[in-house]
């Protein structure tokens, strides 16, 4: 581990993390390390609001497009890759900006975070149950056993539900109890970006409109040819999940669009619940006229 401060920019989807991170990178001579679990997938560009090369404005970005859509996400693998990227950035005297709304991924980088063990037979049994009955009954079981964990996991995210239930059965304790008490791995400052709920809801609707206009449906069709429906993690991504249901004849295009808006708003509430529990996060209103200045004032002087 190389010494230096990591600046994390976290918060709900569509709140303005990416724009702030680009401005901070220019101000701090920094580079971005992605902490959005779905932007790790190649080809999932429009639906994840992945910045184009032009939008990155010359700022180097790490850990975009590293997995095929058929690969299941691994927080442990992400931790290894992200810490290597952070150490590389620090070794060159630059500032790492860890940017994204995937709370567990952020924690895995910033904290001394060891992952609970696995049990192949137990995992197989739970995955077989998931395939047979779908995620809803397993999610209900998780909510009864560990309401805090259930609050941070989407009801349709079968893979994460299975993992949480696996840990509960292995340890005999709630999944959240297996997560360590926060012990820093890197010195860091965490900046939370949020927006008034009504304004953010409107922004989400506009974002989904733009995704459709930019070609989310054709992008999803192309990813189907690369195995997206078989991707246990990628196929659950907001927008892609709804378009896949449309392509399967389960939804009309209008229904897929509207359900993407609703699902994204529900997801935002879960993201807020996760991040707002962390007292170390300094919250900023993205409508603040001097947002960049407010953010920079929270960064340690030696990092600026």
From TrEMBL:
GO MF assignments: ATP binding; tRNA dimethylallyltransferase activity
What enzyme category does the UniProt record give?
transferase
Q: Which reaction does it catalyse?
A: adenosine(37) in tRNA + dimethylallyl diphosphate = N(6)-dimethylallyladenosine(37) in tRNA + diphosphate
**Which key words tag this protein in UniProt?**
ATP-binding, Magnesium, Nucleotide-binding, Transferase, tRNA processing
Q: Which GO terms describe its biological process?
A: tRNA modification
* Site (described: Interaction with substrate tRNA): 102, 123
User: Which cofactors are named for this entry?
Assistant: Mg(2+)
Task: Specify where the region named Interaction with substrate tRNA lies, as residue ranges.
Answer: 36-39
Residues where substrate binds: 13-18
A Pfam family of this chain: IPPT
Q: Which residues bind ATP?
A: 11-18
Tell me which EC number(s) this protein carries. 2.5.1.75
Q: What protein family is recorded?
A: Belongs to the IPP transferase family.
Give the record's subunit note.
Answer: Monomer.
Give a short account of what the protein does.
Catalyzes the transfer of a dimethylallyl group onto the adenine at position 37 in tRNAs that read codons beginning with uridine, leading to the formation of N6-(dimethylallyl)adenosine (i(6)A).
Under what name is this protein listed? Answer: tRNA dimethylallyltransferase
**The organism of origin for this protein:** Micromonospora chokoriensis
Q: What is the lineage of its organism?
A: Bacteria, Bacillati, Actinomycetota, Actinomycetes, Micromonosporales
């Amino acid at each position: 581990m190389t010494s230096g401060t990591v600046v994390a920019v976290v918060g709900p989807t569509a709140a303005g993390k990416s724009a702030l991170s680009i401005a901070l990178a220019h101000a701090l001579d920094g580079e971005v390390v992605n902490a959005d679990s779905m932007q790790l997938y190649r080809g999932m560009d429009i639906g994840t609001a992945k910045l184009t090369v032009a939008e990155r404005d010359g700022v180097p970005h790490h850990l975009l497009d590293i997995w095929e859509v058929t690969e299941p996400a691994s927080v442990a693998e992400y931790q290894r890759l992200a810490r290597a990227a952070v150490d590389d950035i620090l070794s060159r005297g630059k500032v790492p900006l860890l940017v994204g709304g995937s709370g567990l991924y952020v924690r895995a980088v910033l904290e001394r975070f060891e992952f609970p063990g696995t049990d192949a037979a137990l995992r197989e049994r739970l995955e077989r149950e998931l395939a047979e009955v779908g995620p809803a009954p397993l999610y209900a079981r998780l909510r009864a056993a560990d309401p805090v964990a259930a609050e941070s996991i989407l009801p349709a995210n079968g893979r994460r539900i299975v993992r949480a239930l696996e840990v509960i059965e292995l340890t005999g304790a709630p999944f959240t109890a297996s997560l360590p008490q926060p012990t820093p791995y890197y010195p860091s400052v965490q900046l939370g970006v949020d927006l008034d709920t009504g304004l953010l809801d409107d922004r989400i609707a506009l974002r989904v409109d733009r995704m459709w206009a930019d070609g989310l449906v054709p992008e999803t069709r192309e990813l189907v040819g690369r195995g997206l429906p078989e991707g246990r993690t990628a196929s659950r991504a907001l927008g892609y999940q709804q378009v896949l249901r449309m392509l399967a004849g389960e939804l009309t295009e209008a229904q897929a669009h509207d359900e993407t808006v609703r699902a994204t708003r529900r997801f935002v509430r879960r993201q807020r619940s996760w991040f707002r529990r962390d007292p170390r996060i300094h919250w900023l209103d993205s409508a603040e006229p001097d947002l960049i200045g407010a953010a920079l004032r929270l960064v340690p002087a030696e990092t600026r």
